[in-house]
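It is worth pausing here to work through a concrete case rather than discussing structure prediction in the abstract. The textbook approach is simple: state the sequence, then state the predicted structure, then interpret. We follow exactly that order.
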Amino acid sequence: MKIEGVIQTMHNNATCVAESVASDNLSDMKTSAEGRFVITHITGTKIRSVIASMDDYITNITVAEELCEKISKSTDTHEKRCE
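Step two, the predicted structure:
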């Protein structure tokens, strides 16, 4: 049996988040940024593996979003100081 799924999340800096999580993708996962959305397609043949991969992905995307927000705020603060 082939299992397919899509996870779509919205972020202020989707490119940063997508690039951050894509490096941890397994071979059966593809992540991209489209506008404010991060879209990840996942396929597999074993439901337990797909669920475990999705669980890891959700943790990774949560951490990536927090880091990208901090980087964005830090960059904004630095740019304001340099003006």
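Step three, interpretation. Strands lie at 3-10, 29-34, 37-44. The two ends are 58 Å apart (CA to CA).
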